[in-house]
Specification:
It is built from 11 helices and 24 strands. The chain has 422 residues and is α/β, with parallel strands linked by helices. Among the domains are: 136 residues, FAD/NAD(P)-binding domain, CATH 3.50.50.60; 145 residues, FAD/NAD(P)-binding domain, CATH 3.50.50. The strands form 8 sheets. A 5-stranded parallel sheet has the order 5-2-1-9-20. The chain is elongated. It starts with 7 loop residues before the first strand and ends in a 17-residue tail after the last helix.
Length: 422
């Protein structure tokens, strides 16, 4: 490929994958444009702690411009890409075309309500800071409104919290919310008793954490039940509204519903006019390029990628980071005329999930860990991957404070969700 001046690389998405590509190209003689709808990079694995009032948004997010300001070959744009014109080799940022020689789509995923998008109004998912703050607001308002409720039935409804989906997000939210109600809020109210809060975790399958070994799934269930979480298996949600959720013939009245049951990829497959799987992902080639498109890479939650042995690569942060680093090496090699690296292989760094205070599960190759030691390893791993030293110190301090005093320091009700007052 010949270039008029420097090669133009456009990266859409500043999540784990997109940021890894951009930072991996810092020494390349190229013009790099990094585009994202938000002005910040988000550490999604700790997003549930913002939703449950354990951390503040600034503890787990960093301005993209701050992260890229030491990289002169990069240009950051904030806006939403709406289309890709393969013939003209441009992406449409609103109505403005941005030309590329190489394109990387790392646009992530959003919530999937399995054909019932109207449920989103009543059961927010957890993918962005706005989602986390909206959930935190609903949770804390539920306690405030229960304190003023005119009858016990309404108070009980407000103090019922239903979480749909038994994957890592659902498990971590359930444990955190149970501890919030039974520990941090226990002595803050005079009329209601937050310790009587009913926390339900609803999973349509037969066990929690389906990607983990069964022994760890059973440990997770037992740990949540000890925290007071009511775990339901084998029934999918068939209806959701402002009063609660329906499981078959049973209607559960709930003041707060959180959706953690499924994801759908961004519309990147539609932009490219390619086939997509049920989750909307692009089935990429072994080198992570879109099929039949030599100049376009697709990574992270937008891609349905497989290892050479046929095993699917999971939609987790370590996969996106490794894919991003690989694409950076591949792009540098192709632009500089060197041999491209061999096909991408995800190097498994294990699966981790926490279950509240002092309990977690870890699966790494043949290693199976649960309990207190796993919780400390989980915490150390998450702190290590935070971007800045400042954030590492803040998060460690917050966690130690919460560990000793059972306190949650981010219990602020801000903004407006438009929910009617009762």
């Amino acid at each position: 490929m010949s270039y008029v001046s420097k090669p133009r690389i456009v990266i859409v998405g500043a999540g784990f994958g997109g940021l890894a590509v951009a930072q991996g190209l810092k020494r390349l003689d190229a013009d790099i444009t990094l585009i994202d709808r938000q002005n910040h990079h988000l550490f999604q694995p700790l997003l549930y702690q913002v939703a449950s009032a354990g951390l503040s948004p600034a503890d787990i997010a960093w301005p993209v411009r701050r992260l890229m300001r030491g990289q002169p070959n990069s240009h950051v744009l904030m806006g939403e890409v709406t289309a890709v014109d393969r013939a003209r080799k441009v992406v449409m940022l609103h109505a403005r075309p941005i030309a590329y020689d190489w394109l990387v789509l790392a646009t992530g995923a959003t919530h999937s309500y399995f054909g019932h998008d109207e449920w989103g109004e009543h059961a927010p998912g957890l993918k962005t800071l706005n989602d986390a703050l909206a959930i935190r607001r609903r949770l804390l308002l539920a306690f405030e409104r229960a304190e003023m409720a005119s009858n016990p039935a309404e108070s009980a409804r407000l103090l019922t919290i239903a979480i749909v989906g038994g994957g890592p997000t659902g498990v971590e939210l359930a444990g955190a919310i149970a501890e919030l109600s039974r520990r941090a809020l226990a002595r803050d109210f005079r009329v209601i008793d937050p310790r009587q809060t009913r926390v339900l975790l609803i999973e349509a399958g037969q066990r929690l954490l389906a990607n983990f070994p069964e022994r760890l799934s059973l440990y997770t269930e037992e740990s949540l039940r000890r925290l007071g979480v009511e775990v339901r298996f084998g029934k999918a949600v068939t209806h959701c509204d402002g009063e609660g959720v329906r499981l078959g013939d049973e209607f559960i009245r709930a003041g707060t519903v959180v959706w953690a049951a499924g994801v759908r990829a961004s519309p990147a497959a539609n932009w490219l006019g390619l086939e997509q799987d049920r989750a909307g992902r692009v089935a990429v080639a072994p080198d992570l390029r879109a099929p039949g498109l030599d100049d376009i890479y697709v990574i992270g939650d937008t891609a349905a990628a497989k290892n050479p042995d046929g095993t699917p690569q999971p939609g987790i942060a370590p996969v996106a980071k490794q894919q991003g680093a690989y694409v950076a090496r591949a792009l540098a090699a192709r632009i500089e005329g060197r041999d491209a690296p061999p096909p991408f292989v995800y190097r498994n760094r294990g699966l981790l999930a926490t279950i509240g205070r002092k309990a977690a599960v870890i699966s790494y190759r043949r290693l199976r860990l649960s309990g207190w030691l796993a919780w400390w390893i989980w915490g150390a791993a998450h702190v290590y991957f935070l971007v800045s030293l400042r954030n590492r110190l803040i998060v460690v301090t917050q966690w130690l404070w919460s560990y000793v005093l059972f306190e949650r320091g981010a219990r602020l009700i801000t903004g407006s969700d438009g929910a009617p007052r009762r």
